[in-house]
């Protein structure tokens, strides 16, 4: 019905037209009897046989260049990696992070070549390190495979030199302290006290990010590269929506997320899963499939959403992109760009590009409060009902410092176990609680005395 | 006695309603999974809706409010609950039921019967407006004219406007519809899936069209569909469970397209979304409310460009084009060119030949037996 109206927005007409064109194209191809890549028009196109819409259209080289082009565009247009940086690639062993590692490696080789060729050698080559988080403490089922996995990771990383890359294998319990046995105990206790399956999964994910941040800042890295692809982000958009995290969602899906001590960058944000797997197939990359399987229990909201997105993608191959594009239209936060402290280090070309893409950041909508557990920005209306908790104990402060989603799926519901839960949280999270309190009260005080303050700008006048 | 009950149930299950702690629980509340008794269910169900109405200031005293009544479960329960709350809390509303009759033989008979019974039961006046009243054509007449193909276009376009037109005709201040939390959560998801950021920003608002002539509101915004089904079954309200099924059957028997057409339809994901929400609810009942909360919290810049909303030059109804879709279709019907307005614009009213069609030809004016829609006070 909608398709008949002239204002149809579903694109069915366009699709029809496209189908027509495709048929024409294939007819032409049949006529020539010899199919060639639609881009370079000379090589034989690759067929992957995965049922993708553009299967058999590009040759291996053009396909690869296309995906790499998306990666490079993301990196350069958002100033993700600059010559002075020291980049840590989060490598889980999965296909996406494998591709991210490969691309960063290629970028580094190119930078090295340029460095060696240039006369003045003014631009240094950025450094690359690799981090792998050992989750066996959180998922005991993994512990048997972990030894093999780590040695596989190690050999993969060694294969990628020169330039040499440091490999950091981080146990997830390291966020609790250096004593591994005690830390492990605390982790197990913490996870046991979360009753919701999805909540537990998410908590492990947050802890994983914390351990990556920890190793990055301890070893002097300035960027953390995470290989999340479009498909992964599309699932995240829907899970966040389903968990009531609509406010903080726009912080998670931008190319850059600098709310952490070491800014996180997502250079593969614009590549879909199918492209990633095809690329792995082309380049003969292995991935740690066994680890992937063991990590994900087949229940919970996250898995339901992933299968829903997979179904949608099957029905319409551009659905994942549409989902991510929709969410990307939500107003990002002030921290969704690389902080401008080292202005001189951002090459001129990048500055121009940034201008060209005209990325808008709404400075006026800044929030200062972040959830103590998931580090998501907290909506003002959420924290407003917390002032009632002001004069209570520590456990209430924890409750107050969390977003409504974490309160529901991660925090224990009764007060007595809440206190215990708070005590087993990593130090970083609990310090966030106190910080949250301080920020709140400071903001409150500032608000009160606002009209008595002389602002810098006023003074100038 | 308690002991014997305890044996028949699972050990550890609470034997008393967890709200009043007095009576035996008869159901697990879908929204919270609390085990509660019948009396407490009525109370929380009605009280929540009351709080939504008061908290959002949906009505002002003395307003004339039309309840869009299809005869289905949502609108029937809405009519009952609103009339109860109006009496109990002295909203001071002039409530009445507004039903639309498409004029399809056998299609609305049952549901209109239900609405008529509701009129008697709840003491609410009922107004039935037919497509004949509103547009001058019944659906049966339209089908006779244009055949089995494309008639859904007419029915759909006319239905979308019918409530507003009817409400304008009857001079009401507000229109309430029975959209429930599941419907709104589905809309939020669909808008994300289809990339419609503008609609995403407004689809969760409880009142829409406030700047228009007749605001619409949804008192069931936070009410779960399951609870709407439970409510009348405990109360033995009358409603037409078959409405939906019959509608589906008839539209299917009318359509001559091949049966597998829906697989290629661009809107196939709509069905997936509904199923998905049901699955989510099973896993975590709170998810529906969370989706609505997300929809309300999305950071959408206030400068987001909305689809331009103009008014139809002919009838004054909201329209993005010169004439609204219903007027275009109607014009086609009245001029004996029923294909007008179907498919891509082929130089219709809103296309290149505007000037030509601006003045309705004499033949069209003649065949307009009933009022032109231009006579409405929008």
Automatic annotation (TrEMBL), chain A:
Pfam families: CTU2. The lineage of its organism: Eukaryota, Viridiplantae, Streptophyta, Embryophyta, Tracheophyta. It comes from the Eukaryota. Plays a central role in 2-thiolation of mcm(5)S(2)U at tRNA wobble positions of tRNA(Lys), tRNA(Glu) and tRNA(Gln). May act by forming a heterodimer with NCS6/CTU1 that ligates sulfur from thiocarboxylated URM1 onto the uridine of tRNAs at wobble position. The keyword ATP-binding does not apply. One of its GO terms (biological process) is protein urmylation. Its main location: cytoplasm. HAMAP family: CTU2. This is Cytoplasmic tRNA 2-thiolation protein 2. GO terms for cellular component: cytosol.
TrEMBL record, chain B:
SUPFAM superfamilies: Adenine nucleotide alpha hydrolases-like. Its main location: cytoplasm. It is found in: Cytoplasm. ATP binds at residues 68-70, 74, 100, 178, 183. Keywords: ATP-binding, Cytoplasm, Nucleotide-binding, RNA-binding, Transferase, tRNA processing, tRNA-binding. Pathway: tRNA modification; 5-methoxycarbonylmethyl-2-thiouridine-tRNA biosynthesis. Residues 65-231 form the tRNA(Ile)-lysidine/2-thiocytidine synthase N-terminal domain. Coiled coil: none annotated. Residues 341-378 are annotated as: Disordered. One of its GO terms (cellular component) is cytosolic tRNA wobble base thiouridylase complex. One of its GO terms (biological process) is tRNA wobble position uridine thiolation. Its EC number is 2.7.7.-. InterPro entries: CTU1-like_ATP-bd, CTU1_C, Ncs6/Tuc1/Ctu1, Rossmann-like_a/b/a_fold, TilS/TtcA_N, tRNA_thiolation_TtcA_Ctu1. GO terms for molecular function: ATP binding; nucleotidyltransferase activity; tRNA binding. Residues 310-340 form the Cytoplasmic tRNA 2-thiolation protein 1 C-terminal domain. Belongs to the TtcA family. CTU1/NCS6/ATPBD3 subfamily. Plays a central role in 2-thiolation of mcm(5)S(2)U at tRNA wobble positions of tRNA(Lys), tRNA(Glu) and tRNA(Gln). Directly binds tRNAs and probably acts by catalyzing adenylation of tRNAs, an intermediate required for 2-thiolation. It is unclear whether it acts as a sulfurtransferase that transfers sulfur from thiocarboxylated URM1 onto the uridine of tRNAs at wobble position. This is Cytoplasmic tRNA 2-thiolation protein 1. It comes from Thlaspi arvense.
